[in-house]
Amino acid sequence: MPLNFTAIDFETANNHAASACSVGLVKVVDGRAVDAASWFIRPPLGYDHMLEWNTRIHGITAADIADAPLWADQLDALLEFVDGDVLVAHNAGFDMGVLRAATEASFLEVPSLRYLCSLRVARRTYHLDSYRLPVAAMAAGFEDFQHHDALADAQACAAIVVHAAKRHDAADVDELARITGASIGAIGAAADELAAERRPAALA
User: Fold this and answer.
1) Structural domain includes residue 153
2) Residue 204 lies in a domain
3) Position 203 in a domain
4) Average pLDDT of the chain?
5) Is residue 116 part of a domain?
6) What is the pLDDT of residues 82-127, one digit of tens each?
C-alpha cells in the first residue's frame, strides 16, 4: 500500500474547540505532497467571537473571518479534499476535537474519519528536547515556516510523517502507526468500527 494521507491543521478563534477559524490541508500521494488548500472559516454561531490572545498566536482577526462561509457551509469542501484519506495532525487530539465540536455545534453528523498523530510518531522517531511542531519539523528537514499558519503547519506535519515513514521503512500510514506504536484513531462512525475491531472476542 502507498503512503497516502491528508495532513490537516486548524486554528481557533477562542478557547472552545468548536471555534475553527482557519484550516490547512495537504494531500500526500505515494509519499509526495501533490495538493494543498487553506481557507478562513466563520465558526458556528455562538462560538464565533475572536479572542485577542488567539489573534496574537495566529494573526487572524475578526475582520478576516467576518465574511467567510460558516463551518456548516464548508464541511463538504473539506471532506471532498480529504476524499477518505487517513488524516494526520500534530497533536491530533486537538484537531480532531475541533472537527468534531464544530460539526456538532453546526447540528451536523460527525464525519467518519481515521487519523494518526504526528506528534506521537515524532516521539518514536527522533531524540529531541521538544516535540513541538517546529522542532519535530526541523528534524524532518522542514524548516523556516510560519508556525500557526494553518497551511504551513499542515505542510510541516506532512513532512514529519513522510520523513518518519522513510526512516522506519513503512510502506503506508497503518504500518507506520504499528511500527511507532502511535496507533490509528477515529471519529464518527469509524470510531465505532475501530472499537469493534479492537474489542476482544467473547469467550465461548
Assistant:
1) yes
2) no
3) no
4) 95
5) yes
6) 999 999 999 999 999 999 999 999 999 999 999 999 999 999 999 9
Write out the three cell numbers for 182. Answer: 502511535
pLDDT tens per residue, range 143-180: 989 999 999 999 999 999 999 999 999 999 999 999 99
Provide the whole-model pTM.
0.94
Nearest to 188 by CA among 115, 80, 89, 92: 115
3-state secondary structure string across the chain: CCCCEEEEEEEECCCCCCCEEEEEEEEEECCEEEEEEEEECECCCCCCCCCHHHHHHHCCCHHHHCCCCEHHHHHHHHHHHHCCCCEEECCHHHHHHHHHHHHHHCCCCCCCEEEEEHHHHHHCCCCCCCCCHHHHHHHCCCCCCCCCCHHHHHHHHHHHHHHHHHHHCCCCHHHHHHHHCCCCEEECHHHHHHHHHHCCCCCC
C-alpha cell at 108: 451536523
Q: What is the CATH number of the domain that holds 131?
A: 3.30.420.10
Which residue range is the domain that position 48 belongs to? 5-198
Residue 197: pLDDT band (50, 70, 90) is confident
Q: Which of 120, 124, 126, 101 is nearest to 111 (CA)?
A: 101
Q: What total of structural domains would you count in the chain?
A: 1
Q: What is the pLDDT of residues 123-150, one digit of tens each?
A: 999 999 999 999 999 999 999 899 999 9
